[in-house]
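Extended Data, panel c. Modelled sequence:
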Amino acid sequence: MRIKFKLIFSFFSNLYFKLIFSSFIKRNIKSYVVIDIDNTIADTWKVLYKLKGYKSYELIPTLNGTIREIKDKYDGMPKIFLSNRNIFTYSATSNWLLKHKLIDEGKDLLILTSFPEQKLYYLNKLVRNNSEVFYYDDLSYNHENGKVEFYDHIITKVKKIDLKYFDYSYIVNLNSND
């Protein structure tokens, strides 16, 4: 029963985000920066085991190297925060982005996916919309267990999309001096 509920809830949250995304990209904007949150701009894996409830997501430290580059290179460009997180963390995630002055609620968008593969829909839709896309995403997991794993099947597909992709190695390098 619990799995069935999760799938149904996932379906409706996915539909909701697709609808707001479709409305968001109807504006006549040619370039977007798309940013994952966990382990891209938020140093999540180091505190993952400490997170006790959705509200604690507001306490995750930042990855300042990535944030600095995005602010320096893409100031004024609309940002789409595209993160694979539980929908129940939406409020805490939005609060975290606001607290760190990373999101402009009138200009930027936060989308949470239930599965990492769902990110491909948004990236492909932007490119089909003739938008220039700058995409920051580590596309990794399992840091907290001491062996970083990668969503290789997704990375392979991302690299086939006509966008500028900044991957795990790039992000680690940006944050190596912080």
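The two ends are 45 Å apart (CA to CA). This feature is highlighted in the accompanying rendering.
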